[in-house]
Design a protein that fits this description.
Elements (H helix, E strand, L loop, with lengths): L1 E6 L3 H11 L5 E6 L2 H10 L4 E4 L8 H10 L6 E5 L4 H10 L3 E4 L4 H38 L3 E6 L4 E4 L1 H7 L11 H4 L2 H17 L3 E7 L2 E12 L4 E11 L1 H23 L3 E5 L5 E4 L1 H7 L17 H17 L3 E7 L2 E11 L6 E10 L4
Parallel strand pairs: 1-2, 1-3, 3-4, 4-5
Antiparallel strand pairs: 6-7, 6-10, 8-9, 9-10, 11-12, 11-15, 13-14, 14-15
Length: about 375
C-alpha cells in the first residue's frame, strides 16, 4: 500500500483525484486544501509521497517543496498543476521535485499518468533506502568484525582496508590507498601473497591459505572481484582471521595426547577399551604383549577371541553390570596363576550421555 498526501486548493479536484487514485486499492490518499495544512499533516503522519498543486494561496507548490526540504521531510514530490510555463517546470525540478505533470483535458489519461508517476517515485525511493540500509549494514559488519578485511589489485595496491586491519598494521593515521602490500610486508611475504592474488584473479577461484607472521597464525580467504561491465576479475578481497589461540590449543592437545600415550604405554598394567559387546577398541602395549599381539589386528575383535569361556563369561557379566549400574565396577580375576584386580569404568558420550565404551585397568596383584 502506498500512502500519499494530496495538496490542492480546489476541493472538487481533491475529491476527484482521491477517488481515482484509490480506485484499485493500491494507494491511500489524504487531502489538504493548502500547503500550510499539508505541512501540519506531515508532522503528524508519515507518507510515501506528496502530490501538490502549483498555484495555491499563501504558499505555492515550489515554496511548499522548499519548506519540507528545510524541515528534512524527504519525500518523493510531484507538482500537479495547470500552469505550463517552462521556467516553473525548471524551477520545480531544480528544487527537487521528482515529476512535473500538467493538468489536461482528458482526466482518464492524466490520472493514469499521475498514478504511474507516484508508483515510480515511491518505488525509486524505497529502492534507494533499501540500498542505503544495505550499505550501512555492510559497513557496520565490515567495521565491527575482529577479522581483517581488505582488497588489493593485481599490483598489490590497496583498494580498501577495514579499521581492524589498519590497527593490525599500525597505519591508522595513514592513507592506505597510497600504499602497496610490499610497503608493509617483507619481500618473501609479498612474493608469496601476490602469487596467490594473481592466481585468484586469473582463475576466478577463491583460495584459502593458512600462514604464520611474527609468531601469530592466521587463515585467510582470497576471493576474486569481478567487474561486471568488462566481465573480468580486477582485484581480490581478503578476509583474514587470527587463529593463534587455536594453534596453541592444538599444540597443547598434541602434547597432552603424546604424554597420555607415553603414560599408558609405559605402565606395567593392562589398560584397554571395549565396546558394550566386549569388542576391543584399544589396548596398551603391555596388554598386547600379555595377549601375544604385535599389531592393531585386535581392533574390532571380541574378548572371547583371546580368553577361555569361563573368563569371557565373567568379563561379560562385569560389562553388563557397568551398563546396568552406570558406575565403575571392580572385581578379582584369577588367570594363569595370577590374580588381577580389574576396574571397569564407563565412558560417556558428552552429548547423549550414553555409555559408548568401558575402560578396563587390570593390575597384577602378584607384583603390587
Amino acid at each position: 500500500m502506498i500512502s500519499i498526501l494530496l495538496a490542492d486548493d480546489q476541493e472538487e479536484l481533491l475529491d476527484i483525484t482521491k477517488l481515482f487514485l484509490e480506485r484499485d486499492g493500491e494507494i491511500e490518499v489524504d487531502t489538504a486544501p493548502s500547503a500550510a495544512i499539508a505541512i501540519e499533516m506531515l508532522r503528524k503522519k508519515k507518507y510515501d509521497a506528496i502530490v501538490s498543486d502549483y498555484e495555491m494561496p499563501m504558499m505555492d507548490g515550489i515554496e511548499f517543496l522548499k519548506t519540507i526540504k528545510r524541515e528534512r521531510m524527504k519525500k518523493p514530490f510531484i507538482i500537479f498543476t495547470g500552469r505550463s510555463r517552462e521556467d516553473i517546470v525548471i524551477e520545480a525540478l531544480n528544487t527537487g521535485a521528482d515529476f512535473y505533470l500538467q493538468k489536461g483535458s482528458d482526466p482518464k489519461v492524466q490520472f493514469a499518468e499521475l498514478k504511474n508517476m507516484i508508483t515510480q517515485a515511491v518505488m525509486r525511493k524505497r529502492i534507494e533506502e533499501a540500498l542505503l540500509q544495505s550499505e550501512t549494514n555492510y559497513r557496520t559488519l565490515v567495521e565491527c568484525t575482529e577479522d581483517s578485511i581488505y582488497m588489493v589489485d593485481k599490483l598489490g595496491r590497496y583498494l580498501f582496508m577495514n579499521t581492524h586491519h589498519r590497527k593490525r598494521l599500525n597505519i591508522e593515521n595513514q592513507d592506505y590507498k597510497a600504499l602497496i602490500y610490499d610497503d608493509l610486508h617483507t619481500s618473501e611475504d609479498t612474493t608469496y601473497f601476490m602469487n596467490l592474488v594473481c592466481q585468484v584473479i586469473k582463475d576466478g577461484n577463491p583460495v584459502v591459505n593458512e600462514y604464520e607472521q611474527n609468531g601469530r597464525w592466521f587463515v585467510r580467504t582470497i576471493s576474486p572481484v569481478k567487474n561486471e561491465i568488462i566481465e573480468q576479475n580486477i582485484a581480490a578481497t581478503v578476509i583474514s582471521t587470527e587463529i593463534t589461540q587455536m594453534k596453541q590449543l592444538e599444540k597443547a592437545y598434541d602434547t597432552m595426547e603424546a604424554f597420555f600415550e607415553t603414560l599408558v604405554d609405559s605402565t606395567e598394567d593392562s589398560i584397554y577399551l571395549v565396546d558394550k559387546d566386549c569388542n576391543y577398541l584399544f589396548m596398551n602395549t603391555h596388554h598386547q604383549k600379555r595377549l601375544g599381539i604385535s599389531d592393531d589386528s585386535y581392533k574390532g575383535r571380541s574378548y572371547r577371541d583371546y580368553h577361555d569361556e569361563a573368563d569371557s563369561s565373567q568379563f561379560s557379566s562385569q560389562i553388563a553390570l557397568v551398563l546396568q549400574q552406570k558406575e565403575p565396577v571392580r572385581n578379582l580375576n584369577k588367570y594363569n596363576g595370577h590374580c588381577f584386580v580389574r576396574t571397569f569404568s564407563p565412558v560417556y558420550d558428552k552429548k547423549t550421555e550414553d555409555i559408548i565404551g568401558i575402560v578396563v585397568i587390570s593390575i597384577d596383584s602378584k607384583y603390587k
